[in-house]
Amino acid sequence: MSEDDTIDIEQELDNLLTEVQPNLQDVIKRSFTNVVLQQTKNGEQVKPDTLEDTSYFAKNTQVNLTRLELVKPPTFHMQSLSLDLKSMSLSLRCSLGEVKVRGLYSAFNENLYNLIPVMSEGHVLISLTNMTADVNVGLVLEDDAFSFINPGIEFVHDEVLVKLSWPSPQKSGGYDFSTTEQLAKHIDDLPLTAAISLPLFALLRDKLQRHLGLVLRQATSISEVVSCNPSLFEAYSAMVDSLASNGNKVVDMVLINMRRTLLQSCREVLELPPLQATFMHKIGSISFVGKFETEPGWVKNLATINRVCDVSVTRPDPVRTCFRFTLRIKDFQIGYDEYRIKAMGVSSSGRLVATYGRATLHAALSVGLARWEPYAQLDDLRVQHMDSMDVHITGLGPLSGVVGAVTAWARGAGIAHAAPALARQLQHETHVALAELPLWDMLHAK
Which Gene3D superfamilies does UniProt cross-reference here (predicted)? Predict the structure, then answer.
């Protein structure tokens, strides 16, 4: 094939993508609605979506949350959609309406007075109103349909309302349920909602991603996009591969630099604050107050960070290139080398280590020119998932019955302490790498 033929094919592909994009965009919109209708018509009895037991820790206040579940499955309604076949990217906004989580809470320490008027246990209902999801994904070719990678999903909502109910003794005898309400703008502003924000958004994100995956499989056909032309399909595949190759090269250089500095500076292990928990342990009808405390803990294995798939690349303008990518830490661990627990007049001590099967982060950076000076900046880096937690506890002995509570405390520490520490450290390492690497020159090397 001559150079002129190559140029003609590339120009023909450019014209074709420009022509088919509006129609494909409309097809995806209709498919998004059709998938919602399909799921509604199924009418199957679906088990409630649940969140694992967790705890909230801050300023010596500790509250346990159990039996957490969504009041109803979320339904995604399309509001807007934008497709860019040349940059292999898709952006959309959808509405989830009101999202509600219900469950049980318990707290037995004096700091409960910071939350509600009494020391108690009871029911909790958390409502997030007018929730929307802003979604940005990269597109890839898979069989004869588009699939997506590197999902960036940000949830936005109006007020957060928390209702707490607990049995309150009355003068006439017996118990009536009393209720108090708390209101906030941001989910992490209230102790009880801060404890569930990361797992809740991870659950909603997973359901939305599965919805979008089904939409793309039903709505898109690569052969239709390229009019069943083998030459155009080959040119399209080459364009997609070139985008990914350039993005992979840039991000891999950043990750190599990050891993090296983490290891050389001994920053791949971070310190966590100690935990303190007061709990009620029941045997039959008898209740015992117990105490759990640890020495300072640690987070480790940050230097195992790597990207999960190809990098998504977009060029908003001629002098700026944006990269979105998904990162994962292998065998991400938090631990406490010494804990002590006491209940029913029995004391135990030992070591606690929690290993996560999946610690996943979403990241975005951009490289460009500002007043003809090259720059590279971090646009986003946040923890998306910390799940499949496996807990190893030594030394519980006669107190082995509280292993579930200890697991919930470890999960709460992961949300409240480990996830923010991980994000801060990796953000710092990324800034250092971007300052050291000539990414503009690398990206535009001839």
Answer: 3.15.10.50, Haemolymph juvenile hormone binding protein
The full set of domain ranges for the chain reads: 3-225, 245-443
Give the angle 425-427-433 at the CA atoms, nearest 5°: 105
Give CA torsion, residues 203, 208, 214, 216, to 10 deg: -140
Per-residue pLDDT tens, the chain, 446 aa: give them. 455 555 577 888 888 888 888 899 999 999 998 887 776 665 555 678 999 999 887 666 678 899 999 999 888 999 999 999 989 999 999 999 999 999 998 876 555 555 554 456 788 999 999 999 999 999 999 888 899 999 999 999 999 999 888 777 666 666 666 788 888 888 888 878 888 999 999 999 999 999 999 999 988 888 888 877 888 888 888 888 988 998 999 999 999 999 999 999 888 899 999 998 887 766 666 667 788 999 999 999 999 999 999 999 998 888 899 999 999 998 899 999 999 999 878 899 999 999 998 899 999 999 999 888 999 999 999 999 998 899 999 998 888 888 988 999 999 999 989 999 999 999 999 999 999 999 988 887 75
DSSP string, 83-143: EETTTTEEEEEEEEEEEEEEEEEE--SGGGGGTSSS--EEEEEEEEEEEEEEEEEEEEEET
State how far the Cα of 241 lies from the Cα of 244, in Å rounded to an integer. 5
Q: Regarding the domain delimited by 3-225, which CATH topology (the fold level of the hierarchy) does it fall under?
A: Bactericidal permeability-increasing protein; domain 1 (3.15.10)
Same fold, 3-225 and 245-443: yes
Give per-residue burial for 103-126: e unless 16+ CB within 10 Å, then b. bebbbbbebbeebbeeebbbbbbb
